[in-house]
Design a protein that fits this description.
82 residues; 0% strand
Length: 82
Amino acid sequence: MSSFIYENQNSKSFFNMAWIGFILSALGMTVGILYANVDLASKGFLIMSYLFSVSSCFTVAKVVRDRHEEDLYINKVDRKGA
């Protein structure tokens, strides 16, 4: 079984920038919710909505990546078989 190697890898700087941006946005949202002048139920709704949004983004990114990897693998197998 051959190992699958990414043809287009992201740089370490891009990887770090993505995580720094995610952390800063999460902190900003957290501070914004904590200092919002709304009742506790509204803050709870905002927190749950934010967490659902973040988890949905990770899931969509994973599904898109998996589909892309599957297409690359199928094309690689098709090229070897031809």
